[in-house]
Amino acid sequence: MVEQIKVGVVGCGGICKGTYMENMVNKFAIIDVVGACDQIDSRAQWMADHYPGVKKMSLDEMMNDPEIQIIVNLTYPESHVAITKMALEHGKHVYVEKMMAPTFEEAKMLYDLAREKGLMYTTAPDTFLGSWEQDARMYLDNGVIGEPRTVHAQISRYYDPDTPFFDTEPRYFFFPLHYGGGFPFDLGGYFLHEMINLFGSIRRVCGFGGNLFPERTYKNPKHPKYGEKFEVNTPTTLIAALEFENGVLGTFNISSDTQNTMIFEVAGSEGVMHLGDPNSFRTPITVTRPGANPSEIDIPRGPKPAPDPNADNDRQVLGEAKPSQTVILPSMHGFYESLRGVGLADMCYALKNGRRPRCHADIGLHSIEVIHGIQESCRTGRFYEMTTKCERPEPLPASAYSASGQERVLDE
Ligand SMILES: NC(=O)c1ccc[n+]([C@@H]2O[C@H](COP(=O)([O-])OP(=O)(O)OC[C@H]3O[C@@H](n4cnc5c(N)ncnc54)[C@H](O)[C@@H]3O)[C@@H](O)[C@H]2O)c1
After folding, report:
1. Does the C-beta of 74 come closer than 6 Å to ligand 1?
2. What backbone torsions phi and psi does residue 142 show, to the nearest 5 degrees?
3. Which pLDDT score is estimated for 321?
4. Do both 155 and 82 map to the same domain?
5. Quick check: CB of 107 below 6 Å from ligand 1?
6. Rounded mean pLDDT of 150-162?
7. Between vectors from CA 313 to CA 308 and to CA 314, what angle results, nearest 5°?
8. What's the half-sphere exposure (Cβ side, CA atoms, 13 Å) at 255?
9. N or C terminus: which one in the chain shows less Cβ crowding within 10 Å?
10. Mapped to the 3 state alphabet, what secondary structure does 17-37 carry?
11. Mean pLDDT, the chain, as a whole number?
12. 256 CA → ligand 1 middle, Å
């Protein structure tokens, strides 16, 4: 039996109900969720009703419960600072969903507070601990594309709120169009954490963009504010260049003003690795490299043509065969289900075994500084030199364990 670590969860909205609570309670043996709290009481009550052992608690009760060691902050980004600060001031370790704070200054204040108090502070996204992300790290470190030289990260989704619910009350607060929750913060974190996992710290950044269409209109006829204008107060499109400390050069293009795209690729001296979706734990990843694959023969449908006595091999007989240069890389790591919360489990083992957690606040602080730096560059027209650094998190050992056995790779 693993000795469990007691945690209290603040914020029982979409992601808590959809994924986290189930994973924390039923997927990781080391996590013991004892309390749930939300400013909307019924949400915390739902958790208590559905998960035996989880009590509905007020913020005060949770912060003052001596048994609770970690506060899991799953509130929306606007509330991340207040809840994290309160938890640190009450001597609790903190795991917080992305981004750790809406601004770099606030993130730095919390980072310094955690250090001053000697508390562990970790931040999502933890998806870089997922199966394909750890595979990519292992394969790149093993030289499958030679020396990595460039990385291209591009993601866009069109966020034009036409839901009848958008922003009618806290229950329907659509954070991706509010400061700190905007798309570069919301989805950018996944790409940044994975790029840091692969290449380490970024030295400097520059970019264009910002808040492209600040004034918008409630477009859904069913919305109570239909036809009224509202103001978006967060950057919605950033197009940036990144220079990593290790010499890798990157692009980071992120927008909620255009239709959907997603490209995530690393190019190296001997090949190109096509990465997966860093917001997911399991996506096939492939490598394109001269000689990556023995010649493949596309067998045409229908009966095999009679052998041509003049042909010297099968490929000529079939006529259409082309040697493929792209191979799917075998998956070598666990955590391939949707296991948000694995970063929290890793943090629990880090506390138990006195080691550094993989989702260390260094990574979260560095990521929010990248977003901050790109905005500064947009404003000043100059490069932004990063002031923070972070180590690449320790890779996870490759594992062929079954789902319930994967957790043991964290217990070192
Ligand atoms: N929704 C997703 O798909 C998703 C996926 C991964 C990560 N996340 C991250 O998880 C976090 C939460 O996202 P969500 O979609 O669950 O948001 P949400 O708005 O659905 O839920 C947030 C909850 O926090 C509560 N809350 C806010 N401030 C509070 C306070 N001061 N005290 C107590 N409760 C408070 C709200 O009432 C709400 O129930 C965000 O940081 C987001 O980036 C969301």
Report:
1. yes
2. -90, 5
3. 47
4. no
5. no
6. 89
7. 75
8. 19
9. N
10. HHHHHHHHHHCCCCEEEEEEE
11. 90
12. 19
Q: Are residues 285 and 158 in the same domain?
A: yes
The Cα–Cα gap between 198 and 278 comes to: 12
173 lines ligand 1 (CB under 6 A): yes
pTM assigned to the model: 0.90
Instruction: Say if residue 133 is in the same domain as residue 282.
Output: yes
Q: What percent of the chain has pLDDT over 70?
A: 90
- Per the structure, the complete domain to which residue 19 belongs is given by 5-127+338-360+395-410
- Residues 6+ away with beta carbon under 8 Å from 304: none
Closest-CA residue to 350 (of 339, 358, 340, 362): 358
Query: Is 233 found in the same domain as 217?
Result: yes
Ligand 1 contact via 39 beta carbon (within 6 Å): yes
Q: Within a domain: residue 356?
A: yes
Taking the centre of ligand 1 as the mean of its atom positions, its distance from the CA of residue 388, in whole angstroms, is: 27
Q: How confident is the model at residue 22 (pLDDT cuts 50, 70, 90)?
A: very high
Q: Is the CB of 35 under 6 A from ligand 1?
A: no
Give the pLDDT mean for 85-92. 98
pLDDT digits (tens, 9 = 90+) for 205-249: 999 999 998 898 888 888 888 888 888 889 999 999 999 999 999
